[in-house]
Amino acid sequence: MVNGEGAVHTLRAAGVALVVDLAGAHPRILHWGADLGDVGVDTAEALRATAVPAVLNNSPDVPRVFSVWPTEQDGWAGTPAQAGHRGGTATTPRPCLVEADVLHGSDGGGRITLRFDDAVAGTRARLEYGMDSAGVLSVDLSIENPAEAASAYLVDGLRALVPLPDRAGELLDFTGKWCRERSPQRLPFAFGTHSRRARRGKPGHDTPFLLVAGTPAFGFGHGEVWGVHLAWSGDGEYLAERLPEGAGALSRVIGAGELLRSGEIVLRPGERYEAPTVLFTWSDEGLDGLSARFHRRLRARPGHPSAPRPLVLNTWEAVYFDHDLDRLVEIADRAAQVGVERIVLDDGWFQGRRDANAGLGDWLVDEQVWPDGLGPFVDAVRARGMQFGLWFEPEMISPDSDLARAHPEWVLAPREGVGPTARSQHVLDIANPEAYALVLERISALVAEYDIDYLKWDHNRDLVEPVARRAEGDRPLVHDQTVALYRLLDELRARHRRLEIETCSGGGGRVDLGILERTDRVWASDCNDPVERARIERWTRMLVPPELIGSHLGAHRSHTTSRETDLSFRLAVALTAHAGIESDLTVAGADDLQTITAWAQLYRELRELIHTGRIVNADVADDATMLTGIVASDGGRALFTWARLATSPDGQSGRVRFPGLEPAARYRVRVRPELGATSRHEVADPEWMRPAVDGGIELPGSVLAVAGVPLPTLNPQQALLFDVVRVA
Which alpha helices (DSSP H) does 285-432 contain, by range? Predict the structure, then answer.
């Protein structure tokens, strides 16, 4: 590790470069984006010389600087990196660099660590840039109130901000609601501040999720794009900002940070605040390029799931709260028959839980429903060769529960009175050590007693007035609640090394890379309607690889939308993730069971490809259609799904490119028949499809990937699977 003060340093990996000028008290990012090659002395000096902007009319008399820790002192009039005060004073931070360390990784990337002292705010701070082998840039910020300080320092915000060039002219982020998560929205990168705030105690169903700036009209496979994600499971803020005077020599800014409530972070002398990690990603290959970098980062983690992802059956939409041993064993029989490898017993197993109005917080097996405990059902599941999982909602408490009656002060609410319930429940203050210990021990005891393989960890409401009753008064607690959640998950996994955990939050209300550091799967949505699910998962995969996304076969009539869809379409949508079933197999006919069994076999055949390959999306002109693919890391095989969600004016698809294939290669393409017949809105398929349906056709990669091929005109809510194998 070397001292880097006064030098230009570069982190490079996977075609990405970050160049930072450490000269003086105010380090600057000179470049973030395409790799510039070896940044020698000449290039470094040229970047430094061209980083000084003009002095404009009616502006400070020195050139403005956009530093790595932007402040008003530098002439930055936008959102600052740091906001805080000491009882209304020390509101204008002036961090000065005092130490810089640079470490280059042997496989690319590395770290630049900067330490600052601030004579005005009276604080010390640390900033670390890290670049991994996938080219993903992580930014970690912290601020400390020194032990010798005479007063507390209140942190109102600490944000990671990165400048962008003016060609980043368009923005993409996400909104949504329950059962329609991660709905994209695009807008121009206009003057002013585009700020998205998640103030629900979690990212929420309307989470910004991923903020992307890019060259105008960027798509899945084209355009230069810059993205930012906040790896945090509490309140958060994303922003894109453009001022008339620019940001130093660059034009605009993107960033993110934890959204802190007033008085939430009070640093007493000797205390430190560690801001959540913010991840930045660049690609010149469109949105799929961003996605590939995030997926590569996640798959490189030591704890990333490496065993085949088992086919799951979740009991919720099969039985709801009607837990009956004989019926559940019958479902287990059918599950084993079709090839299920894990059964998860959902909500309704614990004390007093006959509906959604009682029981949360007690976490004791209901003896009236389960007089012999869960053992008989667990034994039945294991005897049929399947793993066993169980549903919990540990961060919640029902007013009608023994825990709420014994400890009403454990409800996360002002002492003046608890507000209204949501879904008949309140939030449990797990930052309270006693509440934390009770939940931990109850869950841990059940995991040990039944040797549970898997937990489905739910969180079904927003945090409203999230303050805790403490000796010094009501204190905002979203940050502490989130840290306590992380600690709880970490402790359970430390005690039970084989345990897998799925994060669910009313479906997709808490999907972020902070929670995924501690869990093995996300439940992307409570909606099993395949029309909605296809859209939700397409955008969830922008950040999360398919092996970490649960996707289930639902009933013919959707529980959440009442839409009716064919079995073949539901199976096609559920296949290309961590597949599962969430319907009552005991009412399925013999033909449907045979088709589901064939689908389960197909999942086992293809899951290594699905769970390790690169996600690609065709840029199609018709928004009612989707062509999505998963291409093996060696390019030898790919699986593409051609789907139509609704009708559209176009009668023909035109030539559609299969992205991710090699133009110089040759491929055999065949339609997989296992999911059953697909309804067409045409008299006959394009001519080339006939042999593809009958067993396969060989085509050059130049035709598939560059020229494109016409695809069948499907009826709405239909899909085809193309299995593509390189033959030369």
Answer: 286-299, 316-319, 325-338, 375-383, 402-406
Q: Which tens digit of pLDDT belongs to each residue from 177-187?
A: 999 999 999 99
Q: 3 pLDDT exceeds 60? A: no
Using alpha carbons only, what angle is made at residue 202 by residues 312 and 421, rounded to the nearest 5 degrees?
A: 90
Nearest to 231 by CA among 355, 309, 140: 140
Which run of H or E residues covers position 602?
Answer: helix 590-610
Domain with CATH 2.60.40.1180 in the chain: 618-726
What is the three-class DSSP state of 319?
helix
**416: number of Cβ within 10 Å:** 10
- Per residue, what are the HEC states of 139-202? EEEEEECCCCCCCCEEEEEEEEEEEECCCCCEEEEEECCCCCCCEEEEEECCCEEEEEEECCCC
List, for residues 441-492, the tens digit of each pLDDT value: 999 999 999 999 999 999 999 999 999 999 889 999 999 999 999 999 999 9
Q: pLDDT tens, 317-375?
A: 999 999 999 999 999 999 999 999 999 999 999 999 999 999 999 999 999 999 999 99
Superfamily in which the 2-299 domain is placed by CATH: alpha-galactosidase from lactobacil brevis (2.70.98.60)
Contact between residue 390 and residue 456 where contact means Cβ atoms under 8 Å apart: yes
User: Which amino acids are annotated catalytic?
Assistant: 458, 526
What is the helix (H) or strand (E) element at residue 603, kind and residue range? helix 590-610
Domain with CATH 2.70.98.60 in the chain: 2-299
CA distance 725 to 723: 7
**Under a CB-based contact definition with an 8 Å cutoff, are residues 717 and 531 in contact?**
yes
The predicted pLDDT at position 568 comes to: 98
pLDDT band at 1 (very low <50, low <70, confident <90, very high): very low
Answer for the pair 221, 498: CB distance below 8 angstroms, yes or no: no
Distances 509 to 199, 303, 412, 437, 577 between C-alpha atoms, Å:
12, 23, 19, 25, 18
CATH 3.20.20.70 fits 341-507, yes or no: yes
| pLDDT value at 666 more than 90 | yes
pTM for the model: 0.97
Residue 192's identity, in one-letter code, is G
Which amino acid makes up residue 307? A
* pLDDT at residue 5, as a whole number: 52
**Which tokens belong to 490?**
């970490």
Alpha carbon separation from 377 to 26, 373, 657 (Å, rounded): 64, 9, 49
Distance CA 157, CA 265 (A): 9
* Highest CATH level, class, for 618-726: mainly beta
The mean pLDDT value for 389-409 works out to 98
Give 187's contacts (C-beta < 8 A, 6+ positions apart): 170, 171, 194
